[in-house]
Write a structure and sequence with these properties.
With 144 residues, the protein is of the alpha/beta class. The protein has a single domain (3-133), classed as Rossmann fold (3-Layer(aba) Sandwich). Helix content is 31%, strand content 24%. It contains three helices and six strands, in the order H-E-H-E-H-E-E-E-E. The protein has helices at 3-15, 30-46, 61-74, and strands spanning 21-27, 50-55, 80-87, 101-106, 118-121, 129-131. A six-stranded mixed β-sheet has the order 2-3-1-4-5-6, with helices on both faces. Helix 1 (3-15) packs across helix 2 (30-46). It is globular and about 40 Å long. It starts with a helix and ends in a 13-residue tail after the last strand.
């Protein structure tokens, strides 16, 4: 397991140590998001967390809310982490508030997402790298 996933897992657990937590792994390529989410799930499981996984191929909001998020929130358990992977559509303006933590995966020169809690370059999936973006230097129109 890569240190990147262990470090992000530790960061997430520091910020959200208990309760029902929702984490999204999104990016321009939904299938790459799936693998990154699986790797992060393994790191969280190694940290003694109960992790549930879901994947959305298209990021359809109503389906996300009805079939994934609402059932997770209605369960009796109180200490699970739900990791949802999929495309950038999972971060639409109307769904951003669902997530406790947002991981944006990218490859090469793909642009990062400005609302991400963490950005990971998975150009080489066996050796992911954490990237940090300085959004203070971006013009107000970035991403519009």
């Amino acid at each position: 397991m890569s240190d990147v996933w262990t470090d992000i897992s530790s960061e997430f657990l520091h910020l959200y140590p208990r309760g029902r937590r929702l984490l999204v792994v999104a990016g321009a390529d939904a299938e790459r998001s799936r693998r990154a989410a699986d790797d992060l799930a393994a790191a969280l499981t190694s940290a003694d967390q109960h992790v549930e996984r879901a994947h959305s191929a298209d990021g359809a909001e109503q389906q996300l809310r009805d079939e994934i998020v609402s059932p997770f929130r209605q369960r009796e358990d109180s200490g699970s982490v739900l990791i949802v992977s999929g495309p950038a559509a999972l971060l639409s303006e109307s769904t951003r508030g669902i997530w406790n933590y947002i991981l944006w995966q990218l490859a090469g020169d793909e642009p990062p997402h400005s609302i991400a809690s963490a950005i990971v370059d998975v150009s080489d999936p066996a050796n992911p790298r954490r990237r940090f973006a300085d959004y203070c230097a971006l013009p107000a129109s970035f991403g519009a």
